[in-house]
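EI: anyone free to look at a 378-residue chain?
SC: sure, send it
EI:
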Amino acid sequence: MKYVDEFRDPKAAKVLVKAIAEKVDAIGATVEKPVHIMEICGGHTHAIFRYGLDKLTPPGLEFIHGPGCPVCVLPMSRVDECIEIAERPGVIFTTFGDAMRVPGTRKSLIQAKADGADIRMVYSPLDALELARRNPDNEVVFFGLGFETTTPSTALAIQQAARENLSNFSVFCNHITVPPPIKVLLDDPHMVLDGFVGPGHVSMVIGTRPYDFIARDYGKPIVVAGFEPIDLLQSVLMVLTQIAEGRAEVENQYARIVPDGGNPVSIAAIEDVYQPRPTFEWRGLGEIDASGLRIRDKYKDFDAEEKFGIGYATGRRVVEEPEGCACGEVMTGRIKPMQCPQFGKGCTPDIPLGALMVSSEGACAAYWQYGGARQAAE
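SC: here you go
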């Protein structure tokens, strides 16, 4: 970033921290009754701990970690289906790196690779397209994974495959959307949420209008935020200001990147290639209606579920979480990672029990990387 220094300016941070403390006092929040602000995005969770914002902000403010980590919310059954595809003869299975070590019921993708499956890490679906061009005798499958941030690139890859008639290329689609799980959390009577820090990269694609229901129907403020420390502190201050003034609006702190109407090219590609699934299973949240995307029939030749006869195309089984794993409770903000009985014991980055410990956006990985390892040892 050309102007990154101004978003990490210690003097500006001190001014914002002081203003946040004053707002928390004005609201009357205390340690016993804090203001609960959920950062939806896992990237924000890591930024909060990387820059120590949880320690800088007053004790009357509590960050609640949301379900905005696409690898973390993937149910184990879908990992099993990835491995089922990858272990078939003649298949080259491609995936982003942070999905390689997510455990299924039998093994992870990296373990399947060690057992002989041809599984390759790529940085873009365009890498998978190139593999399909170079290996016409193999089926090349791309693990389409992520929220609205990564959905357009997969859609554009499918469109390109259709133009080139690359019949040996397909996508195992696990793309999901942000608004439906937020509604589920807001409808949960056990969740106490006073406001939201909205996801910046997702909003870069879809804009800010899809969050209108949060303010309109639930009376909760939401501020779309960037990822630098000043971005996050300013966004928290904006949420607290709305709460103090009795307002509930959608505000855009990340206006330098996020247009209110989103990216029309990306939105057009998504609408052309995908349609909502009737339902999709989320780890920790269960089945959520219209929260996942499937490939439209016009592109079904590039749909791995159709091509290999697995998953939602043929009916599927629900897999229970491993005994003692609290990924669901952590991911929905009910408990902190350190409160999971397996944290640092049965679940570590070397031997993960759940996805939150190995994903680059997982809350448990953030706690471990930025001090949790030491605390777990103590």
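EI: The mean pLDDT is 92.
SC: 👍
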